[in-house]
Amino acid sequence: MKVAKHGGNIYEAAMERGIAIEEILDFSANINPLGIPNSLKEALIQNIHSIERYPDPDYKALVGAIAAYHGVNEQWITVGNGATEIIFALAASLNSKNSLILAPTFAEYERALLKAGSEVHYYYLKEDNDFQIDEGFKKMLNPEIDLVVLCNPNNPTGQFLNRQKMMEILQQCRVFGIRLVVDEAFMDFVEAGEEESMIACMEEYNHLYVIRALTKFFSIPGLRLGYAVASNENILRRIRDNREPWSINSLAALAGEVVLKDQAYIRETKDWLHKEKNKFYEELNAIEGIKAYKPEANYIFFSYNKDERCLKEALLTKKILIRSCGNYKNLTNRFYRIAIKDRSSNEKLIEALKEVIYES
Ligand SMILES: Cc1ncc(COP(=O)(O)O)c(C=O)c1O
Protein backbone atom coordinates (compact mmCIF):
# COMPACT_ATOMS: atom_id res chain seq x y z
CA MET A 1 0.00 0.00 0.00
CA LYS A 2 1.44 3.36 -1.06
CA VAL A 3 2.41 5.93 1.57
CA ALA A 4 0.07 8.93 1.30
CA LYS A 5 1.56 12.35 0.55
CA HIS A 6 0.87 14.88 3.30
CA GLY A 7 1.61 18.49 4.07
CA GLY A 8 4.69 19.24 6.13
CA ASN A 9 7.14 17.50 3.81
CA ILE A 10 9.71 20.28 4.01
CA TYR A 11 12.45 17.67 3.72
CA GLU A 12 11.48 16.83 0.13
CA ALA A 13 10.95 20.49 -0.81
CA ALA A 14 14.32 21.51 0.66
CA MET A 15 16.21 18.64 -0.94
CA GLU A 16 14.71 19.28 -4.40
CA ARG A 17 15.83 22.90 -4.25
CA GLY A 18 19.12 22.33 -2.52
CA ILE A 19 18.24 24.61 0.40
CA ALA A 20 18.17 24.14 4.17
CA ILE A 21 14.90 23.17 5.88
CA GLU A 22 15.19 26.24 8.10
CA GLU A 23 15.05 28.53 5.04
CA ILE A 24 11.54 27.36 4.16
CA LEU A 25 8.49 29.17 5.51
CA ASP A 26 6.18 26.20 5.93
CA PHE A 27 2.44 26.77 5.52
CA SER A 28 1.82 23.17 4.51
CA ALA A 29 1.50 21.63 8.01
CA ASN A 30 -1.18 22.97 10.36
CA ILE A 31 0.89 23.38 13.49
CA ASN A 32 0.44 26.00 16.21
CA PRO A 33 3.01 28.77 15.47
CA LEU A 34 3.39 29.50 19.20
CA GLY A 35 5.68 26.46 19.24
CA ILE A 36 6.33 24.04 22.11
CA PRO A 37 4.74 25.26 25.38
CA ASN A 38 7.41 26.48 27.83
CA SER A 39 5.92 24.24 30.50
CA LEU A 40 6.66 21.28 28.25
CA LYS A 41 10.19 22.38 27.36
CA GLU A 42 11.05 22.57 31.06
CA ALA A 43 9.39 19.25 31.85
CA LEU A 44 11.25 17.53 29.00
CA ILE A 45 14.60 18.85 30.17
CA GLN A 46 13.94 17.96 33.80
CA ASN A 47 12.71 14.47 32.94
CA ILE A 48 15.13 13.52 30.19
CA HIS A 49 16.32 10.59 32.32
CA SER A 50 12.88 9.02 32.09
CA ILE A 51 13.96 7.57 28.74
CA GLU A 52 16.32 5.29 30.66
CA ARG A 53 13.22 3.34 31.78
CA TYR A 54 10.48 1.66 29.76
CA PRO A 55 7.29 3.70 29.75
CA ASP A 56 4.32 2.45 31.80
CA PRO A 57 2.68 0.04 29.30
CA ASP A 58 -0.75 1.16 30.51
CA TYR A 59 0.13 4.89 30.45
CA LYS A 60 -1.98 5.37 33.59
CA ALA A 61 -0.82 8.90 34.39
CA LEU A 62 -1.38 10.05 30.80
CA VAL A 63 -4.80 8.42 30.58
CA GLY A 64 -5.70 10.01 33.93
CA ALA A 65 -4.69 13.47 32.66
CA ILE A 66 -6.79 13.08 29.49
CA ALA A 67 -9.77 11.75 31.45
CA ALA A 68 -9.56 14.70 33.86
CA TYR A 69 -9.28 17.18 30.98
CA HIS A 70 -12.49 15.93 29.35
CA GLY A 71 -14.25 14.90 32.56
CA VAL A 72 -14.76 11.31 31.38
CA ASN A 73 -14.15 7.82 32.70
CA GLU A 74 -10.53 6.61 32.36
CA GLN A 75 -11.82 3.33 30.93
CA TRP A 76 -13.08 5.23 27.88
CA ILE A 77 -9.66 6.39 26.76
CA THR A 78 -6.94 4.76 24.74
CA VAL A 79 -3.77 6.54 23.73
CA GLY A 80 -1.61 6.36 20.61
CA ASN A 81 1.59 7.49 18.94
CA GLY A 82 -0.19 10.38 17.24
CA ALA A 83 -3.82 10.22 16.14
CA THR A 84 -2.58 8.20 13.18
CA GLU A 85 -1.79 5.15 15.30
CA ILE A 86 -5.31 5.35 16.73
CA ILE A 87 -6.83 5.59 13.23
CA PHE A 88 -5.16 2.34 12.14
CA ALA A 89 -5.82 0.58 15.47
CA LEU A 90 -9.49 1.54 15.46
CA ALA A 91 -9.96 0.52 11.82
CA ALA A 92 -8.32 -2.84 12.60
CA SER A 93 -10.58 -3.40 15.61
CA LEU A 94 -13.92 -2.35 14.15
CA ASN A 95 -14.02 -5.09 11.47
CA SER A 96 -15.92 -2.96 9.00
CA LYS A 97 -17.17 -4.53 5.78
CA ASN A 98 -18.51 -1.33 4.21
CA SER A 99 -17.36 2.06 5.40
CA LEU A 100 -18.28 5.55 4.30
CA ILE A 101 -15.87 8.47 4.32
CA LEU A 102 -15.86 11.94 2.81
CA ALA A 103 -14.05 12.86 -0.40
CA PRO A 104 -11.91 14.79 0.19
CA THR A 105 -10.78 13.97 3.71
CA PHE A 106 -7.63 13.03 5.63
CA ALA A 107 -6.02 10.32 3.47
CA GLU A 108 -5.06 7.92 6.27
CA TYR A 109 -8.71 6.87 6.78
CA GLU A 110 -8.88 5.36 3.34
CA ARG A 111 -5.55 3.58 3.84
CA ALA A 112 -6.43 2.30 7.31
CA LEU A 113 -9.86 1.01 6.27
CA LEU A 114 -8.59 -0.67 3.11
CA LYS A 115 -5.81 -2.27 5.13
CA ALA A 116 -8.42 -3.57 7.58
CA GLY A 117 -10.33 -5.15 4.66
CA SER A 118 -13.25 -2.74 4.50
CA GLU A 119 -14.78 -1.70 1.20
CA VAL A 120 -14.55 2.08 1.29
CA HIS A 121 -17.43 4.17 -0.08
CA TYR A 122 -17.20 7.92 -0.58
CA TYR A 123 -19.50 10.84 -0.14
CA TYR A 124 -18.30 13.35 -2.74
CA LEU A 125 -18.49 16.86 -1.32
CA LYS A 126 -19.56 19.41 -3.89
CA GLU A 127 -17.71 22.56 -4.81
CA ASP A 128 -20.96 24.31 -5.72
CA ASN A 129 -22.12 23.67 -2.17
CA ASP A 130 -18.83 24.93 -0.71
CA PHE A 131 -17.85 21.34 0.24
CA GLN A 132 -20.44 21.31 3.04
CA ILE A 133 -21.90 18.06 4.31
CA ASP A 134 -25.45 18.45 3.05
CA GLU A 135 -28.69 16.48 3.29
CA GLY A 136 -27.45 14.15 0.52
CA PHE A 137 -25.00 12.68 3.03
CA LYS A 138 -27.78 11.31 5.21
CA LYS A 139 -29.24 9.55 2.18
CA MET A 140 -26.00 7.55 1.92
CA LEU A 141 -26.64 6.04 5.35
CA ASN A 142 -28.25 2.62 5.08
CA PRO A 143 -27.95 -0.79 6.77
CA GLU A 144 -25.28 -1.91 4.25
CA ILE A 145 -22.87 0.64 5.68
CA ASP A 146 -21.41 -0.38 9.06
CA LEU A 147 -18.96 2.46 9.72
CA VAL A 148 -18.92 6.19 8.99
CA VAL A 149 -15.93 8.48 9.50
CA LEU A 150 -16.30 12.26 9.69
CA CYS A 151 -13.38 14.60 10.31
CA ASN A 152 -14.74 17.63 12.12
CA PRO A 153 -13.49 20.14 11.06
CA ASN A 154 -12.75 18.29 7.85
CA ASN A 155 -9.24 18.30 6.46
CA PRO A 156 -8.46 19.90 4.00
CA THR A 157 -11.76 21.75 3.42
CA GLY A 158 -12.13 23.08 6.98
CA GLN A 159 -15.89 22.61 6.89
CA PHE A 160 -17.48 22.08 10.27
CA LEU A 161 -20.62 20.47 11.69
CA ASN A 162 -21.89 21.79 15.00
CA ARG A 163 -22.91 19.33 17.68
CA GLN A 164 -26.58 19.53 16.84
CA LYS A 165 -25.95 18.51 13.21
CA MET A 166 -23.51 15.80 14.25
CA MET A 167 -26.11 14.48 16.71
CA GLU A 168 -28.61 14.09 13.86
CA ILE A 169 -26.08 11.94 12.00
CA LEU A 170 -25.25 10.00 15.18
CA GLN A 171 -28.94 9.24 15.76
CA GLN A 172 -29.43 8.13 12.19
CA CYS A 173 -26.34 5.91 12.42
CA ARG A 174 -27.88 4.26 15.48
CA VAL A 175 -31.06 3.46 13.57
CA PHE A 176 -29.02 1.58 10.94
CA GLY A 177 -26.52 -0.01 13.35
CA ILE A 178 -23.63 2.08 11.95
CA ARG A 179 -20.60 2.97 14.09
CA LEU A 180 -19.61 6.66 13.84
CA VAL A 181 -15.99 7.80 14.12
CA VAL A 182 -15.60 11.55 14.58
CA ASP A 183 -12.05 12.81 14.11
CA GLU A 184 -11.62 15.95 16.19
CA ALA A 185 -7.88 16.39 15.55
CA PHE A 186 -8.43 20.14 15.04
CA MET A 187 -11.29 20.66 17.52
CA ASP A 188 -9.06 22.40 20.09
CA PHE A 189 -8.62 25.22 17.57
CA VAL A 190 -12.37 25.73 17.08
CA GLU A 191 -13.86 28.54 19.16
CA ALA A 192 -16.05 26.91 21.82
CA GLY A 193 -14.66 23.60 20.55
CA GLU A 194 -15.36 21.73 23.78
CA GLU A 195 -19.03 22.72 23.53
CA GLU A 196 -19.14 21.28 20.01
CA SER A 197 -17.10 18.16 20.74
CA MET A 198 -18.93 14.84 20.67
CA ILE A 199 -17.00 13.62 23.71
CA ALA A 200 -19.81 14.92 25.91
CA CYS A 201 -22.23 12.46 24.23
CA MET A 202 -20.23 9.32 25.01
CA GLU A 203 -22.27 8.01 27.90
CA GLU A 204 -25.45 7.41 25.90
CA TYR A 205 -23.94 6.31 22.58
CA ASN A 206 -21.62 3.35 22.52
CA HIS A 207 -21.45 3.36 18.71
CA LEU A 208 -19.55 6.68 18.84
CA TYR A 209 -15.73 6.97 18.70
CA VAL A 210 -13.92 10.30 18.95
CA ILE A 211 -10.29 10.68 17.88
CA ARG A 212 -8.17 13.57 19.12
CA ALA A 213 -4.60 14.73 18.43
CA LEU A 214 -2.30 16.77 20.66
CA THR A 215 0.27 17.11 17.88
CA LYS A 216 -1.19 20.16 16.18
CA PHE A 217 -2.48 22.34 18.98
CA PHE A 218 0.55 21.83 21.23
CA SER A 219 3.05 21.92 18.38
CA ILE A 220 4.51 18.44 18.95
CA PRO A 221 4.14 16.61 15.61
CA GLY A 222 7.66 15.23 16.02
CA LEU A 223 6.92 13.91 19.51
CA ARG A 224 3.52 12.41 18.46
CA LEU A 225 0.52 11.91 20.72
CA GLY A 226 -3.15 11.21 20.13
CA TYR A 227 -6.05 9.36 21.75
CA ALA A 228 -9.51 7.96 21.28
CA VAL A 229 -12.50 8.40 23.56
CA ALA A 230 -15.33 5.86 23.42
CA SER A 231 -17.74 4.26 25.87
CA ASN A 232 -17.59 0.93 24.04
CA GLU A 233 -15.07 -0.65 26.37
CA ASN A 234 -14.98 -3.92 24.40
CA ILE A 235 -13.56 -2.20 21.34
CA LEU A 236 -11.10 -0.18 23.41
CA ARG A 237 -9.94 -3.39 25.09
CA ARG A 238 -9.49 -4.98 21.67
CA ILE A 239 -7.33 -2.03 20.61
CA ARG A 240 -5.21 -2.29 23.76
CA ASP A 241 -4.86 -6.06 23.39
CA ASN A 242 -3.76 -5.75 19.75
CA ARG A 243 -1.34 -2.89 20.12
CA GLU A 244 2.41 -3.14 20.23
CA PRO A 245 3.71 -2.32 23.69
CA TRP A 246 5.33 1.07 24.48
CA SER A 247 4.39 2.70 21.18
CA ILE A 248 4.29 6.06 22.95
CA ASN A 249 7.71 7.07 24.24
CA SER A 250 8.18 8.32 27.81
CA LEU A 251 8.63 11.96 26.81
CA ALA A 252 5.50 12.01 24.64
CA ALA A 253 3.52 10.44 27.51
CA LEU A 254 4.86 13.10 29.86
CA ALA A 255 3.97 15.79 27.30
CA GLY A 256 0.30 14.82 27.46
CA GLU A 257 0.29 15.12 31.24
CA VAL A 258 1.90 18.57 31.13
CA VAL A 259 0.29 20.38 28.20
CA LEU A 260 -3.33 19.65 29.04
CA LYS A 261 -2.80 21.55 32.29
CA ASP A 262 -1.19 24.55 30.59
CA GLN A 263 -4.20 26.87 30.61
CA ALA A 264 -2.04 29.93 29.80
CA TYR A 265 -0.80 28.35 26.55
CA ILE A 266 -4.29 27.21 25.62
CA ARG A 267 -5.66 30.76 26.19
CA GLU A 268 -2.78 32.39 24.30
CA THR A 269 -3.33 30.09 21.32
CA LYS A 270 -7.06 30.85 21.23
CA ASP A 271 -6.34 34.60 21.42
CA TRP A 272 -3.80 34.45 18.56
CA LEU A 273 -6.16 32.47 16.35
CA HIS A 274 -9.13 34.67 17.14
CA LYS A 275 -7.15 37.74 16.02
CA GLU A 276 -5.53 36.17 12.97
CA LYS A 277 -8.12 33.86 11.43
CA ASN A 278 -10.58 36.27 9.83
CA LYS A 279 -7.96 38.86 8.94
CA PHE A 280 -5.86 36.33 7.02
CA TYR A 281 -8.97 34.86 5.38
CA GLU A 282 -10.11 38.28 4.18
CA GLU A 283 -6.68 39.23 2.87
CA LEU A 284 -6.50 35.98 0.97
CA ASN A 285 -9.99 36.32 -0.45
CA ALA A 286 -9.24 39.82 -1.71
CA ILE A 287 -6.60 38.48 -4.13
CA GLU A 288 -7.87 38.12 -7.69
CA GLY A 289 -8.64 34.53 -8.66
CA ILE A 290 -8.63 33.19 -5.09
CA LYS A 291 -11.72 31.86 -3.40
CA ALA A 292 -11.02 31.11 0.26
CA TYR A 293 -13.36 29.08 2.45
CA LYS A 294 -14.10 30.53 5.86
CA PRO A 295 -11.87 28.78 8.41
CA GLU A 296 -13.09 27.16 11.63
CA ALA A 297 -9.70 25.86 12.74
CA ASN A 298 -6.07 26.89 12.13
CA TYR A 299 -5.92 26.41 8.36
CA ILE A 300 -7.54 27.87 5.26
CA PHE A 301 -8.66 25.97 2.19
CA PHE A 302 -8.80 27.89 -1.09
CA SER A 303 -9.09 27.55 -4.83
CA TYR A 304 -7.19 29.52 -7.46
CA ASN A 305 -9.25 30.02 -10.59
CA LYS A 306 -7.51 32.69 -12.65
CA ASP A 307 -5.15 30.55 -14.69
CA GLU A 308 -3.47 27.16 -14.74
CA ARG A 309 -0.45 28.20 -12.72
CA CYS A 310 0.71 25.99 -9.84
CA LEU A 311 0.87 28.36 -6.89
CA LYS A 312 2.83 25.84 -4.85
CA GLU A 313 5.68 25.78 -7.39
CA ALA A 314 5.59 29.56 -7.83
CA LEU A 315 5.76 30.16 -4.07
CA LEU A 316 8.56 27.66 -3.62
CA THR A 317 10.80 29.90 -5.71
CA LYS A 318 10.30 32.34 -2.81
CA LYS A 319 11.00 29.58 -0.27
CA ILE A 320 7.38 29.40 0.87
CA LEU A 321 5.72 25.98 1.03
CA ILE A 322 1.93 25.54 0.78
CA ARG A 323 -0.12 22.34 0.49
CA SER A 324 -1.33 21.58 -3.00
CA CYS A 325 -4.54 19.55 -2.65
CA GLY A 326 -4.35 17.97 -6.11
CA ASN A 327 -3.70 14.49 -4.67
CA TYR A 328 -6.88 14.43 -2.54
CA LYS A 329 -9.75 12.38 -3.92
CA ASN A 330 -12.36 14.70 -5.52
CA LEU A 331 -10.00 17.72 -5.68
CA THR A 332 -7.79 19.06 -8.47
CA ASN A 333 -4.65 21.15 -8.70
CA ARG A 334 -6.75 24.30 -8.38
CA PHE A 335 -7.10 23.67 -4.62
CA TYR A 336 -4.68 24.52 -1.83
CA ARG A 337 -4.51 24.53 1.96
CA ILE A 338 -2.44 26.82 4.12
CA ALA A 339 -1.81 26.95 7.85
CA ILE A 340 -2.63 30.14 9.73
CA LYS A 341 0.65 31.34 11.23
CA ASP A 342 1.84 34.45 13.06
CA ARG A 343 1.06 37.89 11.57
CA SER A 344 4.45 38.53 10.05
CA SER A 345 4.56 35.12 8.30
CA ASN A 346 0.99 35.52 7.08
CA GLU A 347 1.86 38.94 5.65
CA LYS A 348 4.83 37.41 3.85
CA LEU A 349 2.57 34.82 2.23
CA ILE A 350 0.00 37.41 1.17
CA GLU A 351 2.73 39.61 -0.36
CA ALA A 352 4.31 36.63 -2.12
CA LEU A 353 0.94 35.55 -3.52
CA LYS A 354 0.28 39.06 -4.82
CA GLU A 355 3.70 39.13 -6.51
CA VAL A 356 3.13 35.74 -8.10
CA ILE A 357 -0.39 36.52 -9.27
CA TYR A 358 -0.20 40.21 -10.26
CA GLU A 359 3.39 40.70 -11.37
CA SER A 360 3.88 37.96 -13.91
C1 LIG B 1 -8.04 14.99 10.45
C2 LIG B 1 -6.73 14.47 10.92
N1 LIG B 1 -6.68 13.47 11.79
C3 LIG B 1 -5.52 12.97 12.24
C4 LIG B 1 -4.32 13.49 11.79
C5 LIG B 1 -3.04 12.88 12.29
O1 LIG B 1 -2.58 13.47 13.44
P1 LIG B 1 -1.26 12.97 14.16
O2 LIG B 1 -0.14 13.81 13.65
O3 LIG B 1 -1.53 13.19 15.62
O4 LIG B 1 -1.06 11.54 13.84
C6 LIG B 1 -4.31 14.54 10.88
C7 LIG B 1 -3.03 15.09 10.41
O5 LIG B 1 -2.97 15.98 9.60
C8 LIG B 1 -5.55 15.04 10.44
O6 LIG B 1 -5.60 16.03 9.55
From TrEMBL:
<dbReference type="InterPro" id="IPR005860">
    <property type="entry name" value="CobD"/>
</dbReference>
<keyword id="KW-0169">Cobalamin biosynthesis</keyword>
<feature type="domain" description="Aminotransferase class I/classII large">
    <location>
        <begin position="23"/>
        <end position="353"/>
    </location>
</feature>
<dbReference type="InterPro" id="IPR015422">
    <property type="entry name" value="PyrdxlP-dep_Trfase_small"/>
</dbReference>
<comment type="pathway">
    <text>Cofactor biosynthesis; adenosylcobalamin biosynthesis.</text>
</comment>
<dbReference type="GO" id="GO:0048472">
    <property type="term" value="F:threonine-phosphate decarboxylase activity"/>
</dbReference>
<keyword id="KW-0663">Pyridoxal phosphate</keyword>
<dbReference type="InterPro" id="IPR004839">
    <property type="entry name" value="Aminotransferase_I/II_large"/>
</dbReference>
<dbReference type="GO" id="GO:0009236">
    <property type="term" value="P:cobalamin biosynthetic process"/>
</dbReference>
<keyword id="KW-0456">Lyase</keyword>
<comment type="function">
    <text>Decarboxylates L-threonine-O-3-phosphate to yield (R)-1-amino-2-propanol O-2-phosphate, the precursor for the linkage between the nucleotide loop and the corrin ring in cobalamin.</text>
</comment>
<dbReference type="Pfam" id="PF00155">
    <property type="entry name" value="Aminotran_1_2"/>
</dbReference>
<dbReference type="InterPro" id="IPR015421">
    <property type="entry name" value="PyrdxlP-dep_Trfase_major"/>
</dbReference>
<dbReference type="InterPro" id="IPR015424">
    <property type="entry name" value="PyrdxlP-dep_Trfase"/>
</dbReference>
<protein>
    <recommendedName>
        <fullName>threonine-phosphate decarboxylase</fullName>
        <ecNumber>4.1.1.81</ecNumber>
    </recommendedName>
</protein>
<dbReference type="GO" id="GO:0030170">
    <property type="term" value="F:pyridoxal phosphate binding"/>
</dbReference>
